[in-house]
Write a structure and sequence with these properties.
binds iron/sulfur cluster; globular; 7 helices
């Protein structure tokens, strides 16, 4: 990974280097879960079914570098499309920064500990099943609740 500038996460997304962009991810794993889109309304339902490459215990991709070879439709989140991906969770670092908001207090770039995303109750580690074992997606619709602080911020509390 290349050089990361001090406090690079406070810079506008457009100014980040490739390495800084990659480092912004909090590791929650939410974007590695299947969603179901209603064909009529376009509404998107979340599921607790993970991509086959996701380690369901750690919420890490098991082959991030080569993932496109195994999962051709894996979304590569880029600056150009980040605002066009409506299903990114409200906690997603890319979504927050695209909106000019600060990273959440539990983000590893602020705390120095990558496990804080798990402690904050944000990551999917230990809460999902692999698509290899799940069966029909329709049986796995869930609502992922946002951490308390997010809810307070959204309600203006
Ligand atoms: S939802 Fe955002 S922060 Fe979470 S793993 Fe995906 S890209 Fe990273």
């Amino acid at each position: 990974m290349g050089e990361l500038r001090e406090n690079f996460w406070t810079l506008p997304l457009a100014q980040l280097t490739r390495a800084e962009w990659e480092a912004l991810c909090d590791g929650c794993g939410r974007c590695c879960l299947h969603k179901i889109e209603d064909a009529d309304t376009g509404a998107i339902a979340d599921t607790n079914v993970a991509c086959k490459l996701l380690d369901t215990g750690t919420a890490q991709c098991r082959d991030y570098r080569n993932r496109k070879a195994f999962v051709p439709d894996c979304l590569r989140l880029t600056f150009a499309i980040v605002e066009d991906v409506p299903w990114l969770p409200s906690t997603c670092a890319y979504r927050l920064r695209a909106a000019g908001r600060d990273l959440p207090h539990w983000h590893y770039l602020l705390t120095g500990d990558r496990d804080d995303v798990h402690r904050a109750g944000v990551s999917v580690a230990g809460r999902v099943v692999s698509e290899d074992e799940a069966g029909p997606l329709e049986h796995h619709i869930v609502e992922w609740s946002a951490p308390q602080r997010d809810l307070e911020e959204e309600s203006g509390a």
